[in-house]
Write the structure tokens for this entry.
Amino acid sequence: HFRCSVPGLKRAVLKWVPVLSWLPQYSIRENAVGDIVSGLSVGIMHLPQGMAYALLASLTPVFGLYTSLFPVMIYFIFGTSRHISIGTFAVVSIMVGSVTEKFGPDSNFVVGGNGTNGTAVVDIDARDAYRVQISCALTAVVGVLQILFGLVRFGFVVTYLSEPLVRGYTTAVAVQVLLSQLKYVVGVHTTRFTGPLSQVYTLIDLCSLLPKTNIATLVISIVALFVLILVKELNTYYRKKLPMSIPIELIVVRFYFLHLSRVNANKFLSSLRSPPPRLKAPRVPDGNLFILVFPDAFAIVIVAYAISISISKTMALKHGYKVDSNQELVALGLSNVFGAFFQCYVVTASLSRSLVQESAGGKTQVAGVVSSIIVLITILKIGSLFAELPKAILATIVFVNLKGMFKQFNDIPLLWKSNKMDLMIWSVTWVATILLNLDIGLAVAVVFSMLTVIFRIQLPRYSILGHVPGTELYVDMDAYEEVRRVTIFRSSATICYTNAEMYLEALQEKSGINIIEQLTEKKKLENKLKRQQEKEKKKAKKAAKKLQVQPCMQRTFVESKHNRYESMSHELMNEFPPCLSPTENQVDVNSEQNPSVKKKGKKHQTVLVSPTEVGPVYGGFDGQVNSAYQMDPEVSDACPADDDNSARENGGVKTEERHRTHSVILDLSTTSFVDTVTAKTLNNV
């Protein structure tokens, strides 16, 4: 594996730098037009979304534009997905915002005034600068962790985040985004809350401030929201006929600058002021903040990767190519580490932009390069237009782009009909994330999801399958009564050390066969037969000493001995329980014609094999006898399929039939692996 060779080096380079494998073979005739058109569409979407999502991260809009530029170029080189759009995303933005607000609250930057009487003044510039340092440090730590996880092939961890968990979590995050942006729509200033139940406190505070709603801000927000929803629906309906989607978000922002600037000058609208976007020299993140943000980075690593890889695999499955999950981790990590030097925050794939990139004809990540060029031109040439942006317009843009997440509430009725356990995971994830905040909510969701797996393994559904006459179906006997006497036992979960003992108990309960009781009774009968044989042998020895054995007399004696032995065996046979009669399968270890029988010194043994028994009951017999596969009519008659009230006469005593089982089949189709405890349990059965 570690041997150095030129072909091996080439494979390693192509694996870690995927762009070298497909860019030299890029077909301009087939792919260029689609990539350029989709790149233009996605680039236009990057502008309003980047600025709006930066507001969720508690940063100024310019840093959203930076995040839409530099990491996209890195993913173009190292990514393996051809259709996803890397950049800002609402879920990750709100998670970054929770960290920046936690370590950079307004209370740390109060200059002058009195906070108790509402005259305190917050140094906005110092606060925003410190929050940028926190976001850069957080992005660097997230990137390093993603690279390390990718190198140790830790991409499989996302498999422990089930689809109901991810969808419930993103839906809860969408609700948090909605609550955080409502204050801009109604034009009020709410108090910032952090920690568990912060969303509840925010909602209560917002409701108490509704009488102070800014009517002008509310009307403009409603009109903008209506226009955005209408045009986006038209884009969806006519996506096959339009050469590119209508950039309605950019049009709404532009319309504000042309016609509503006077309203804003009169301070009817709250605006977000920031320096004009311009390219800055790279700067090393503050290493002193790494330890501070390290605990919060883990949740962001998992969520950002889960969103990206799920979108990537969906697109890859649709277009027939493969995505390397570990390389995706490395690509995201390098994008974040590189972006941290240019004041970007954590990136992941955006579902809305990825769908536009794919539907507009994008074939490769060249579309991402085109979108980056659009963002770069915007920053260099028309960046001054975005120096002052209305928060209400940005909030409506965020609302409209969350439509897909709010549609996930439709999962509730679907999961109710299909799988209530998945519905429980979805619901617990949603409630925990809303009440306990993003990081604790994710931890609770993962733990609960794992517990459901453990409980489903520990508490499986056991059933006895029976054959439905006239069909080839084997169904649960609880649903069908008229089944044959072949018992098929099935567990709904795999058998392992945690539930092997319960499996054995359920087998005995469901089949009605008490293994311990039957083996004990069988052992008693065998001992009784053995004592009778020894008694007959002693009588024979005494008789042999007394008689002068002549050839004819000896033959007569042997015949009479044989008759007495068969008479004794016939009497004992009636005392055996159903299906354990030794008559048909009696093996005498004294028989010289049985080469598979071993003798231990001078002791003689008789092994009784039941019709459903595989192997010996006791030691001393190594023969492989399996009469369960022999459809002997005499054996079948030993267990007649009478009703439960049928009885037979045994030695003058009327006993009720124990069970109606002829053979037992263990259905192990759900068992994915077998450990030593399972092997011992099956051996005991």
Confidence is low (pLDDT under 50) at residues 575-659. The two ends are 45 Å apart (CA to CA). The first strand starts at residue 85 and ends at 87. Residues 609 and 672 are 32 Å apart (CA to CA).
